[in-house]
Amino acid sequence: MTSLQGFAESVDWLNERIGRAIAWLTLAMILLQFVVVILRYVFGIGSVMMQEAIVYMHASVFLGGAAYTLLHNGHVRCDIFYSDASPRTRAIVDLIGVFLFLLPMCIMIFWVSWPYVANAWAVLEGSPEGRLGIPAVFLLKTMIPVFALLLGLQAISMAVHAGLKLAGLEGLADLDGFTKDVDDEGAGL
Q1: pLDDT of 3 above 70
Q2: Which residues contact 45 (CB under 8 A, 6 or more apart)?
Q3: Dihedral angle sign, alpha carbons of residues 45, 49, 55, 61
Q4: According to the model, what pLDDT value does residue 121 have?
Q5: Where are the domains of the chain?
Q6: Is the model's pLDDT at 124 over the cut of 70?
Q7: How many whole angstroms separate alpha carbon 54 and alpha carbon 32?
Q8: Which of 84, 116, 154, 178 lies in disulfide reach of 67, CB 3.0 to 4.6 Å?
């Protein structure tokens, strides 16, 4: 195993674990939304903090789960020619897509969000609802560069896998999506 391959597999492992863990937030989000609705419409009780918690979980699922989705080839793509292309052509398209579009986008998001997040941390930005809300908007905003970092790492992993396949160091048969299970523990949530 080359060091690049080891790096790519480590990134795959990390994003697999983060994705599986963060998937549980969807269940928590649904249950909390159910509680909010029951409290509001049955008992006439509202909670800004619980409503903000739903927003925090929603953002965490989408931002934290983006790299997991890329790992499992779940993002939307133009399949006009990709789906019928040979595994070699797919590897080339993946390499071009990573270096021309995905990595520059991740770098730009990280670069632009850094001052925004740093300012939020500098003042430990809290909820606009004051003491009624969650006093941790700075943590929510931190998910933006975390998203860019995890997605960028997964993009590099995708490029490494595609490059290794083109070099004949990984099989071309399992190219389409790096959808292989990252481990043999069985399917999780």
Answers
A1: yes
A2: 39
A3: negative
A4: 98
A5: 3-166
A6: yes
A7: 7
A8: 154
